[in-house]
From TrEMBL:
InterPro entries found in the cross-reference section: Thiolase, Thiolase-like, Thiolase_C_2, Thiolase_N
PANTHER family: ACETYL-COA C-ACETYLTRANSFERASE, NON-SPECIFIC LIPID-TRANSFER PROTEIN-LIKE 2
Residues of the Thiolase N-terminal domain: 21-225
Limits of the Thiolase C-terminal domain: 241-390
Origin species: Streptomyces caeni
Name the record gives this protein: Acetyl-CoA acetyltransferase
Alphabetized Gene3D superfamilies for the sequence: 3.40.47.10
């Protein structure tokens, strides 16, 4: 068969599995549940899927998960770069569709990170191991959260960013979660409550850090000819970018600049849009500082201006200047490990007008037209950014 090149890629199916506290399911079951729901969302049968992408589960990911789902894909991707995995995979899937290598690519993820700890099947991980470059940091107790805390402290030193401004990120994420029935934590919090919580890694108290949940998500991307047969309106992949910055902290040139500075620039340029045209942003938020610095690096405000930008309710789904993490994000909604796929699900729901009480509206009540999803992996080691458009 002759390949058809230059085809546009659209997201036509999105879904979450059961999320939050899921004690009686396996990660495989959550993968399957999310996948079935995404196909139902698109109105398509699994027989249409000829591409598959997954990471984080199985000895031979994604082959093991594809077998569990009854799929025999002719195109696969197992890229694993932490939380940014799913934005990078979405970019690869769109490229495969454009090149004619696949017509329908399913991205799926599922994890029982919370349930496993409660049942004693695993313990909390403080680091990613002690091999390779990491062997030079681990002896000094340089845990995962410590890396983010150091970066946040540097930004505070360099630009005068305050702990109250970082706390505002958590407060507004929780306000967005309050309107999301799928969010794990919905009760309002205040800046004072964030600041007075137990210290985890200076300057981060507990509420500066993401929650630990169970859950899964799935996203179905298809070629434009397939999109015509779907029950949902297509959300188009307009542009994407990816970037790997460092592994060892000693090799990170500037703690105040994330890899989104490159992936975002590439994504916006390829999409042919400017940051100021974007209606909402879904940003990886394992810690409050991630949101703040990613907003800077995507170009929504200048370098060092993130602290002032996140004040005064600018991130709220209801009336915010730039609604961010409209579902409540990893700080309040769900965070079962690598959360990047959840960003894409929420962005698509918002563009399709399916977000319920947390639905973002433009002037005159119009639906948003442009969204960006930006995932971060490791300790700002990698970034994937995708620009999505409606209609």
């Amino acid at each position: 068969m002759t390949a058809v090149t230059g085809r546009k890629a659209a997201i036509v199916g999105v879904s979450l599995s059961d999320c939050g506290r899921v004690d009686e399911a396996t990660p495989y079951a959550l993968h399957a549940q999310a996948a079935r729901r995404a196909l139902a969302d698109a109105g398509l049968d699994r027989s249409v899927i000829d591409g598959f992408a997954s990471a984080g589960l199985g000895t031979l990911a994604p082959a093991e998960v594809a077998e569990y789902l009854g799929l025999r894909p002719a195109w696969v991707d197992s890229t694993s770069v932490g939380g940014s995995t799913w934005e990078v995979m979405a970019a690869h899937a769109a490229d495969a569709i454009a090149a004619g290598h696949a017509r329908a690519v399913l991205l799926v993820y599922g994890s029982t990170a919370r349930a496993d700890i409660r049942a004693g099947r695993r313990t909390g991980n403080l680091s990613f191991g002690a091999r390779g470059p990491l062997q030079f940091e681990v002896p000094y107790g340089h845990t995962l959260i410590a890396k983010y805390a150091m970066a946040a402290r540097r930004h505070m030193h360099e630009y005068g960013t305050t702990i109250e401004q970082l706390a505002e990120v958590a407060v507004q994420a929780r306000a967005n979660a309050a309107a999301n029935p799928e969010a794990m934590f919905r009760d309002p919090i205040t800046v004072d409550e964030v600041l007075s919580g137990p210290m985890v890694a200076d300057p981060f108290t507990k509420l500066h850090c993401c929650i630990r949940s169970d859950g899964g998500a799935a996203v179905l991307l298809v070629a434009e000819d397939v999109a015509r047969d779907c029950r949902t309106a297509p959300v188009w992949v307009l542009g994407s970018g990816e970037h790997v910055s460092h592994t060892a902290m000693s090799q990170w040139p500037d703690f105040t600049v994330s890899p989104a500075a490159v992936s975002g620039r590439l994504a916006f340029a390829r999409a042919g849009v400017r940051p100021e045209e974007v209606d909402l942003a879904e940003i990886y938020d394992a810690f409050t500082y991630m949101t703040l610095v990613t907003l800077e690096d995507l170009g929504f405000c200048g370098k060092g201006e993130g602290g002032a930008f996140v004040e005064k309710g600018r991130l709220l789904a209801a009336g915010g200047q730039l609604p961010v993490n409209t579902d409540g994000g990893g700080l309040s909604a769900q965070h079962p490990g690598m959360r990047g796929l959840f960003l894409l699900v929420e962005a698509v729901r918002q563009l399709r007008g399916e977000a319920g009480e947390r639905q973002v509206r433009k002037d005159g009540g119009r639906l948003p037209e442009l969204a960006v999803a930006s995932g971060t992996g490791g300790w700002f080691c990698s970034s994937g950014t995708v620009v999505l458009g409606r209609g």
